[in-house]
Design a protein that fits this description.
By secondary structure, this protein is of the alpha/beta class. It folds into 2 domains: about 260 residues, TIM Barrel, CATH 3.20.20.20; about 90 residues, Sulfite Reductase Hemoprotein, domain 1. Helix content is about 40%, strand content about 20%. The chain is built from 13 helices and 15 strands. The strands form 3 sheets. An 8-stranded parallel beta barrel has the order 3-4-5-6-7-8-9-10, surrounded by 6 helices. Helix 9 links the parallel strand 9 and strand 10. Helix 8 runs parallel beside helix 9. The protein is globular and about 65 Å long.
Length: about 400
């Protein structure tokens, strides 16, 4: 499939600062800083790395007044197109809007803060700040933090709960007279990402979509998971901007941009990569790409170590999730057989939705292996003999 016969996109164009996405605009490639926002030296370095790699948009997380102060200082040293991730603190929207080109909010996170206020009132608060400062908005729906109301409405269809949440928020923004918005529907499962975005595009073919596989994990598996989703969606005319979320050391963050452009180039030229039929039929390690919410820099090293010590179990269909923070970690490990989410000094270990306790970083790998061996023995009869 070449560029000439690839299905055309039908989305409207929106402005994100000096960048235009949607319609026939080039598909934009973006990434996110992985450092603590208030660490100006480290975050400034991340911005430089991403700019040098050719990022069209750079996202920064803000969750406190102190983060806003840091963002203001960072903005003074870059003219990059900046997006801000409001995390769970939508009240910061008026403070960050003058400093960035796009605000990303998560509908699920709005549910948690000030529960006495209607969701629509909270959305209006964000929209008003965006309007006053010519900011675009991304409605970012994430599999691990879907609004509980939607989860209860679609208990047997997690994809539909995401789609309905996104559609309803689009209606709210439309009714508020705000059109410079895009939507993302992300999951760690490539097939669910494909399904969710196709369903949404059928309902709202006019709304620009940001594509990505959340917590795709370490290369090369994380790249393959992302490629699976992007090849299916972009070739179908779906997707106006992308992010490749990889678990990487801070200085290698530019690889996300490089990989994203390589995937888009391959799709445009009809170079579709074949995926082995048994890919992800065995051990599946999900890992987030790290961001400013991570409270211990050992997270990336931990994710790499998890992969090393579990190699003996590659043939077993078991999912292990390694998450870097307390914001998304608890919810986004619920569907894994074993889940780790990291705090400042301890790593929380889960089996499905059940907590198994919190362990120091130097003990967690041993605990993880013990639990993995129990699962293998319970499901498959015995643990591989080559492992001591």
């Amino acid at each position: 499939m070449t560029e000439s016969n690839k299905k055309k996109r039908t989305t409207r164009q929106i402005k994100i600062g000096k960048l235009t996405i949607g319609g026939d605009s080039p598909i934009a490639v973006q990434s996110m800083t992985a450092t603590v926002t208030q660490d100006l030296k480290a975050t400034g370095r991340q911005i430089e790395i991403l700019e040098k790699a050719g990022a069209d948009v750079i996202r920064i997380a803000v969750d406190s007044k102190e983060d806003v102060v840091a963002l203001k200082k960072l903005r003074e040293h870059t003219d990059a197109v900046l997006s801000v991730d409001l995390q769970e603190n939508y009240l910061l929207a008026p403070d960050v809007a003058p400093l960035v080109d796009k605000i990303r909010y998560n509908p699920g996170h709005l549910w948690h803060l000030q529960k006495d206020k209607p969701i629509r009132e909270k959305v209006q608060f964000i929209v008003s700040a965006a309007k006053e400062n010519n900011c675009a908005i991304r409605i970012g729906v994430n599999c691990g933090s879907v609004d509980p109301d939607y989860k209860s409405r679609f208990p047997d269809d997690s994809v539909q709960s995401m789609v309905e949440s996104a559609v309803d928020h689009c209606v709210m923004l439309d009714e508020m007279g705000f059109t410079d918005y895009c939507v993302s529907l992300k999951d760690s499962d490539s097939n669910k990402v494909i399904d969710a975005n196709k369903r949404f595009a059928e309902r709202r073919p006019d709304v620009p979509l940001h594509l990505g596989v959340t917590e795709a994990g370490l290369p090369p598996e994380g790249i393959i998971k992302t490629r699976i989703a992007l090849e299916q969606l972009v070739s179908a005319g779906i997707g106006d901007t992308i992010r490749v979320s990889l678990t990487l050391p801070d200085d290698d963050k530019g690889e996300e941009i490089k990989v994203g452009r390589e995937i888009l180039s391959d799709i445009a030229e009809g170079r579709f990569r074949s995926v082995p039929k048994n890919f992800l039929e065995g051990l599946n390690i999900i890992a987030c790409p790290s961001c400013s919410r991570v409270e211990n820099g050992k997270f990336v090293e931990l994710a790499q170590d998890v992969r090393k010590i579990t190699e003996y179990a590659n043939q077993y269909k078991i999912t292990i999730a390694v998450m870097g923070c307390r914001v998304n970690g608890p919810g986004e490990t619920d569907d894994a057989d074993l889940g780790l989410w990291c705090g400042p000094t301890y790593v929380n270990l889960k089996k499905g939705e059940a907590s198994l306790g919190a362990f120091p970083y130097d003990e967690i790998l041993k605990q993880l292996k013990n639990e993995l061996d129990k699962i293998i023995e319970d499901r498959f009869g015995s643990v591989p003999s080559q492992v001591s």
